[in-house]
Design a protein that fits this description.
By secondary structure, the chain is of the alpha+beta class. It has helices at 15-27, 32-48, 90-106, 112-115; strands spanning 52-60, 75-83. Helix 1 (15-27) packs across helix 2 and helix 2 crosses helix 3 (90-106). It comes from Streptomyces demainii.
Length: 141
């Protein structure tokens, strides 16, 4: 039975781990964000036993030049979905997540109701069928 009980987990990555994360990301031709997202999706897969994992990623919604002069906060939430079937290595999962992330950003102006597939009887405005796990990552000096 679903309880809709969640939690917020904040943590700080120390300088050495951050440096190693950047080095790995650079050597694989991706960004630290995609590397962290891959790690998070693998963790969710292991905890849930599911191989099809979607994570909601917040993005700035100013992808169109006509929005530039407008005042206000334009934020969108993109589902980044990855299929972890076939027991991929971390590098293979990293490539899959990178491809899915680029695809999500390419289609970020598509409405979530149009991109989530057929509507589900259990889907409401409060719960989208495509994702129930948000993620946020911020860099500080």
């Amino acid at each position: 039975m679903e309880t809709y009980t969640g939690a917020l987990e904040r943590f700080t990555v120390d300088a050495e781990v951050s440096r190693r994360l950047s080095t790995l990301s650079q050597s694989e031709g991706t960004t630290p964000f995609v590397t962290l997202l891959t790690t998070f999706q693998i963790l969710l897969s292991r905890y849930t036993g599911q191989l099809d994992i979607a994570v909601a990623v917040p993005v700035l919604g100013r992808s169109r030049p006509d929005l530039d002069p407008l005042i206000g906060c334009f934020v969108n939430t993109l589902p980044v979905r990855v299929d972890l079937s076939g027991n991929p290595t971390f590098r293979e999962a990293l490539e899959r997540v990178g491809d899915q992330t680029l695809d999500a950003f390419d289609h970020m102006d598509t409405s979530s109701t149009r991109s989530s597939g057929p509507s589900s009887p259990s889907a409401t405005r409060a719960t989208r069928p495509w994702c129930r796990c948000p993620s946020a990552c911020s860099a500080t000096a």
